[in-house]
Specification:
CATH architecture of the largest domain: Orthogonal Bundle
Strand content: 25-35%
CATH topology of the largest domain: Glutamyl-tRNA Synthetase, domain 2
Helix content: 10-25%
CATH superfamily of the largest domain: Glutamyl-trna Synthetase, Domain 2
Number of strands: 20
Largest sheet: 7 strands, mixed
Radius of gyration: 26 Å
Order of helices and strands: HEHEEHHHEHEEEEEEHEEEEEEHEEEEH
Number of helices: 9
Oligomer: single chain
Number of domains: 3
Amino acid sequence: MPILDSLEGVTHALRSSEYHDRNPLYYWVVEAAGLRKPYIQDFSRLNFTYTLLSKRKLQWFVDKGFVWGWDDPRFPTIRGMLRRGLTVEALREFIVAQGASKTLNLMEPDKLWALNKQIMDPVVPRYTAIATEGKVLFTFSDGPKEPQTKSVPRHKKNASLGNKVVTYTASIWLEKEDAVSLAQSEEVTLMDWGNAVVDSIERSADKITGIKGHLHLEGSVKDTSKKLTWLPNIPDLVNVKLLDFGYLINKPALEENDKLEEVVNKTSLFESPAVGDPNLRLLKKGERIQLERRGYFICDEPYLVVSKPMVLFEIPDGHTSKAASVLTTKRAKPGTNTQSKDQPKQ
């Protein structure tokens, strides 16, 4: 290698710092051969917490079936991270910002994802999805007798993204968590519609089975403390499978004597069934969106047939508290919390 560097006109050899101890041998070979002496610049490798970069160790996860393949969204490969929703722009800006430091460091991946969020937020459209499990019907005494539609911006601050269609009906679906938080006579704001008042809450045992109320569209959204996402009660809502991912290992950094089978995180895939607004039918594979009050997602499997849900991968947004909770306190989202060896069909 030293001879090739010299003969091929290399002036600066850039190498990661684990090769530093070989520098004297490199120079000895060059001097012994009477060749021009290239300059060696060492730089530290970029390491992330809870992340494996060794190809040999990553191959172990593939061979053991803990991931779907080298493009698995839990993998730190280019294909894997792009599939999970990382933008090329964010990756490029992050690497340039690091510089060629010689200091060994262990970085949090949240910094990369936070930068990715800054790039995505102004340019991704907004949609709505409600968790299937426990969703509650909110019925209005003065709601529209027939479904009504209205065209609204897909992004309130970016008109270039165009519009989407919102349907208004006499009854709407609410998230279970939102329904549980409501009280009788409380006034709330329904996003992209207006205010409504809770008249009564129906219960069966400890479960809320329905909510009745009336619209108060002239009410001030500034006077309400709760801004709720919702979906119309119509048959053409889209079945959606929301997938979120945790770390593949349960230690911030591996030591030499660590065995992968002892540090593997066997619960790194979180699945949540949901229903989404009909506009999601238009999403194409690889498109990034924001689901209101849920986060950012990338479409891995678009909507094709009624019997098969579309698949959206949640994109990390850089919140350290959320990333850390994956290993300890992160509760299972509605649906199945499981480690699956089955990759979504392409």
